[in-house]
Amino acid sequence: MNLFPERFLRYRKALVWAAALIAVTGANLYFRSYPVYFPQLKGHAQKAVEQRIQQMAVEVVYKKFPQFDPLAKDRLIKNLYADYRRQNKQEIKAQVNDLYRQIKDRYQDEEGQTYLMELDCWHWARYVENVLRLGHPGDETVYGNQLDLFMLAPTGYYMLWDNFLFYLSSFLYRVFTLVRQVPLFVFLFYLPLFFIAVFSVFFYFFSFRFGGHAAAVVASLFVGLSPIFLQRSCAGWFDKDVLNLFLPLAVSWAYLIAVSHSDYWRRLMWAFISAFCLGVFCFNWTHWWFILFVIFIYESFSCASLIVRLVFFKEKNRSALYQRGLLFLFFALFSAIWILLLAGPKPLAELYRQARLALILNKPLMASVWPNVYATVGELRSLKAAEIAHSMGNAWVFLAAVISMLVFLFRAIFNREFSGFRYEAVVLLCVWFLAMFFASTRGVRFLVFLVVPLGVFLGWAISDAYAFFRERKNIWAMALVCTAFLALSGLFVNKAHTSARMIYPLMDDSWYKVLNLIREKTPRETIVNSWWDFGDWFKVVAQRRVIFDGQSQHTPQAYWMAKVILSNNEEEAVAILRMLNNGGNRAFEIINTHLKNHLRSVLLLESLLPSTPQKARQALLEVMPVLPAEEVLRILFYTPPRACFIVENTMLPKMPAISYLGNWDFSKVYIAQNFNSQEKDRITDYLKKLGRNPQQVETFYQEGFLVSKENLDAWLSRRLQFYGQLVNGREHEGIVYFDNGFVYNIKDQTIGSAQGQIPRTLFFYEDGKLMEKGLAGANAGFSAMVAKDDKGVYQCLLLDRELGGSLLVRLYLFKGKGMKHFVPFIDAEEGNNFIRVFNIAW
């Protein structure tokens, strides 16, 4: 009779471990599985069906009993609604299931498989496909370098060294298909769940060292269910995010064991393991060096602390100081060896440049004359401390974690309560937090790295508080800590559910069909021209080359394409597109090779674009030999390969970013870069010599003198925008009433709002031409565009006046009417959201 309790006690420790790990890992996997079936959409379908039934009940009662009092009608409606639900349970269930399938099918292919979640996912998946097919991620290997032929068409793009994910995924796929055959993209859709399971177990064991199961559970739920991390590691998010959190944690853990171990050879072994993990991390991500920087700062602090104790407190720790420095040197040496073996010499050669780039990541003005595209990317926008706190899921929990960190740091350094692994971990994790907090102020994408130290300290604080009150046998305080434990766990789960309900793939059926049509109906050599956002889809689904994409958005191609989108002159736009499709930014590079001056080179190139071949040749031969001049002329004026141009609805809200790049003023840039280092006459004379308007140059210099440093970015370029989405109107007796409150008089061609707003100008098409009309009494800062679609429905779009004749508006709203170089090819409409594909007639 006593065998079961004894056996239970014997295995209790293992059972607790198993239960805790299963609970934490299960919670992490459950919420990340939402994109598989979209359970949140089942609730939407249920509500929609119930509303339909209720509306039916309302119509029946009001038609049958029009004379009844509203209170009586309400009672009859509730009774009819309840009776219908009770008598038609199976039918209602079938309606809910049918509607649920219809809603979720928008995000799934014909096999019911959800599309990959984000843009980069498709890009990385193509590289895995190449590894399986070719043995390497690039489309070609040129002198040992991987070349992606689909990026930066037509020249291609030499890939960087961060290829670990592709080789690992292809290996795992080969192993998995020994057991079961599945399509590659299906496997890659579920692979993040495997990564997160491994990470959850690993992080649980790491956190356990600080306070047992309570600390590990709280830390694991805080980190794993953090909205910022959950959304970037769910099913379908085939990206590097999980590995980018797992690998630096492995580097840190191994290094902490090394510095806290008493045995010399064991210390070297763990330093070797830590260095290996750093080498793999470098092989996986170009910003690998952040953890090396953290360890360097941590070691600098530790050595400084030893020196202070040696000098001021006369502690005999000279050997510890030597051992510490020697261990870091061994770690650095081992790291360099592993990096060279796995990723080659490039990461080490570019270490300084990348660290410097991180400091100016989201600043528009750089040393180059080109605009910094990263300054316009939402993922890299700057954050304030309050925004960082809220992004962790709950500002109060963030504050509690930070306070916990500071308390442990005080106890470690001043009270010297900890030693060995715990002391070293406190210092390193604090340095990690400070470094990544600074990084988060430079870009949103670095927020995810904050969750690791915060989660560890928060879990440790809960466990420590419970142990403290348990020693003193304070039952009420222990109960309070347990309540806090349960409340935090519930909060994390609730936040995870809320966050998971918002996860949907960017790809939908409309895009998938358009991309497949491009693949089926265009020659393989076709180059897709558009803004960078969906370049990865063009490469992977449509299988066509692109001018630039999310991985090459930082190139000058962004400036040129933005100018195309903003251009009011079709010939100017086509001239730029001709240059891009013939050689990307190669024309500038050739010119700059001879002029060795970025500003002079780009200004010369811009003057050549609208020129004739004869005049362009004459201008080029003045600054370079014949052969390179002929190459530039070929790029500028020869007929490019087959190409298409795509405009779509998300380009409208992106216009502030696009216009900031397209309106980039090189004269202002030169003034801003040299304002504090050169005299006025030298700056203005140089710009005038380059052909800049003398009066404008003088004005720019005076403005530069008055503009504060904080407003410099806004002065360098101007952002334009659309004021809301495209809206429909209802015509009645010659008056069109739009959904945004504006009223259009067809006969008088005037427009205004019910609140008395009158746009600056009105754009419309007449006799095949785009017309602009000034409006009397204009008092608004924007213009209005009125169009009539193929179904005779009037539509209105509010926009900055400079956008009225832009290529984007003429293609998106008017389908290229009256244009000779853009021929309609594919047109997909969903409400007022359009995807329009045009063939470029060179």
Ordered list of secondary-structure elements with their pairings:
Layout: H1 3-10, H2 12-32, H3 34-37, H4 39-64, H5 70-87, H6 89-105, H7 119-134, E1 140-142, E2 145-148, E3 157-158, H8 164-177, H9 184-224, H10 227-230, H11 241-260, H12 264-284, H13 289-312, H14 318-343, H15 346-349, H16 351-359, H17 385-391, H18 395-413, H19 420-442, H20 451-471, H21 475-500, H22 509-521, E4 527-529, H23 535-540, E5 545-546, H24 557-566, H25 570-583, H26 586-595, H27 598-608, H28 613-621, H29 626-637, E6 643-648, H30 655-662, H31 666-674, H32 680-689, H33 694-706, H34 712-716, E7 727-732, E8 735-738, E9 742-745, E10 750-753, E11 761-766, E12 769-774, E13 783-788, E14 794-799, H35 807-812, E15 822-830, E16 833-840
Parallel strand pairs: 4-5, 4-6, 11-13
Antiparallel strand pairs: 1-2, 2-3, 6-16, 7-8, 7-14, 8-9, 9-10, 11-12, 13-14, 15-16
What do these coordinates show?
With 842 residues, the chain is an alpha+beta fold. Among the domains are: 39-105; 119-148 and 166-191, no CATH class; 240-359; 509-660, Pyruvate Kinase, Chain: A, domain 1 (3-Layer(aba) Sandwich); 665-716, no CATH class. It contains 35 helices and 16 strands. An eight-stranded mixed sheet has the order 10-9-8-7-14-13-11-12, with no helix packed on it. The chain has a five-stranded mixed sheet with strand order 5-4-6-16-15, with helices on both faces. Strands 1-2-3 form a three-stranded antiparallel sheet, with no helix packed on it. Strand 13 (783-788) and strand 14 (794-799) form a beta hairpin. Helix 11 (241-260) runs antiparallel to helix 12 (264-284). It is globular and about 90 Å long.
